[in-house]
Amino acid sequence: MEEIVKTIFPFAVIGLGIFLAFQGVLMIVAYTVLAERKVLGWIQGRIGPNRVGPWGLLQPFADLFKFIFKEDIVPDKSTKFIYYLAPVVALTCALLPIVVYPFGPAITTVDWSFLPYGLGEGIRELPLTIAQIDVGVLYVLGITSVGVYGIALAGWSSNNKYSLMGGLRSSAQMISYELAMGASIIGVVMLAGSLDLNTIIHAQINSPFKWFIIPQFVGFFVFLIAAFAETNRIPFDLPEAETELVAGFHTEYSALKFALFFMAEYVNMFTVSVMIVTLFLGGWYVPGLGKILEPGSIPYALVSHIAFLGKIFAFLFLYIWIRGTLPRFRFDQLMNFGWKFLLPVALGNVILTVIIVYFLNI
Asked: pTM for this one?
């Protein structure tokens, strides 16, 4: 029995971590939708959802049941396999980056010997990361890039001209703004000397600036603007422009398949918010907290995690605020802005950072 427990224990811990991380993100996504409807109602002088549960807090679950029980309509002329696969691809690619995000500092001050069967022996720290890989930044960029295939395939497989136009627009938009987004990260990678997200956070802790937004404020703004375009949010929501394309790539989707696309958009919002916080705002690090609480302790990890979530919620609120404030670009304006302004600014920031880092190393 003891040997069986020792064999299963590592997998159980990893499985529990994966479950908690994904469940937590999905709950944040559900209530981000509710927060968006509430904040937009406040901006527009309305009340917003307030019928289901106290203050409308159970509205996300009502929406879920609505999607489950709605009639699922599939176009006769659609390419069925790709039509069903597209929303799964979109949501899967949105969720996969979660495994490399550092949600807080490692806990190192707890004695794990209290665990039965000697399971605590050799445990020096408990990282608040599912998987730490040396190229975490490239992993996130690679996985999120593949997500556009879900949108493009949805537009093509629906056999609808509006859907196809939405899919093509999304592909062009992704290519245009992904270049600027990748270039905006290079400055941070040079300052940190690593592509590992945990190392980037610790580089900010050891930096005199503490947060890379100070030396990389140009890269921060480029990344932020590109993030709005990558997630197809206003003012860059051209792939699903209702006034032009009905609903764009998901015109022919309904019920749970539409819900998967809906969830993928909000998970992507969470993903880019985590990346902005990790790369430019120190991740979970709070300057001065180590002088109040012992680093490596559970209270230190808990406060750091709450601060991490607070920074993320600030960017999610910004997404909502921008949606209630700005109009949509025309498609030609979107492409011109990406290629003629944002990309040159990002490349200029890279060149300037190279010069500064070179002379500082001398």
From this structure: 0.87
